Amino acid sequence: MLIAHLSDLHISAGPPETAPVRRDAPDMARLIVADLMALPQRPDAVLITGDVADGGSVADYDLVRRILAPLSMPVMVVPGNHDRRGPMREAFGGMVPYASPDALSAGTLHFEAHVAGARIIGLDSLVPGRVEGVLDTAQLDWLEHRLATGTAPVFLMLHHPPFPTGNAHWDASALQKGRERLGQIVQACPAPVRLLCGHVHQAFHTQWAGGYAAVGGSPAFQYGFGFDERAEPPLIDAPYAWWMHHQRTNGSFAVHPRVVTLPSRNDLPR
Ligand SMILES: [Fe+2]
After folding, report:
1. Are 156 and 113 in contact (CB under 8 A)?
2. Which terminal CB of the chain, N or C, has fewer other CB atoms within 10 Å?
3. Element spanning 34, H or E
4. How many angstroms separate the alpha carbon of residue 55 from the centre of ligand 1?
5. 73 CA to centre of ligand 1 in angstroms
6. pLDDT at 229 over 80
């Protein structure tokens, strides 16, 4: 089974709201979709770990849907801090089995789906108007129940990383609440859990709560290395890499980067 992990497309119908987002971010998303569909072995699902839109308007999500429309496999999306729940549910509710808005008072867009022998679980860490993320008790209770049983590999989607990134600027805006309990739930799960995150705009892997964890990077703007306790990392102009997760029925698991060359941007400080 092949799972494509993308993140932080930051698509907007008008000029982007977020300063470093490249003006041609929708075209970058189109490039990735075309590249993905041209692969000789296409993934069984495409998972996008948040900030799919930059401003979160109805027009933004309408454009996102049109850009992603050529993808022939299931596409699943969780919200990031630049998304908005209402328009996102409207745009993707027919594709992603989000929990009913009546099930929890916050109306969070969490879900569970099954694809090619894997369980895909999405969590919603969005706090409207805030950069940092939170997992509420209701979702953690729901997740604990879902992960208590079953042996099929789990791909757990969450925009805000619960693990340190190595940069204090980013760690201050990562998952601020629910992190410890999430780690306990993941660690107690009888099945392997692959945690897929976004938010940091730098693709990397780590080990967390006894399992594999990844950050999906972003084709809209990318940070370079910045292992610093104070400053934001530098913006870089570089090829974009997304992850192809290969889970086999014999239990083996491997992660392959898929590098896509993007047109150079000329608006970064030199
Ligand atoms: Fe982002």
Report:
1. no
2. C
3. helix 25-37
4. 11
5. 24
6. no
Predicted local distance difference test score (pLDDT) of residue 104 = 56
> Whose structure tokens read 């328009």?
87
At residue 44, the pLDDT reads: 97
230: pLDDT confidence band, cut at 50, 70 and 90? confident
- SS3 for 161? coil
Output the CA 149–ligand 1 centroid distance in Å. 33
- 164 contacts: CB under 8 Å, gap ≥ 6: 171, 174
Strands 154-157 and 193-197: parallel
| DSSP string for 80-126 | -TT--HHHHHHHHTTTS-BPPTTTSTT----EEEEETTEEEEE----
Residue 182 C-alpha to ligand 1 middle, in angstroms?
22
CA of 122 to the centre of ligand 1 (A): 17
- The alpha carbon of 121 and the centre of ligand 1 are apart by a number of angstroms equal to 20
Q: Residue 205: what pLDDT?
A: 95
pLDDT at residue 269 tops 70: no
Split at pLDDT 50, 70, 90, the class of 265 is confident
- Give the span between the Cα atoms of 103 and 41, in whole angstroms: 38
Scanning the structure block, which residue is given the tokens 């993308």?
6
C-alpha to C-alpha distances, 143 to 8, 26, 107, 147, nearest whole angstrom:
24, 33, 15, 6
Q: Is the CATH code 3.60.21.10 the one for domain 2-260?
A: yes
Residue 270 has pLDDT above 70, yes or no: no
Residues 234, 44 contacting (CB under 8 angstroms)? no
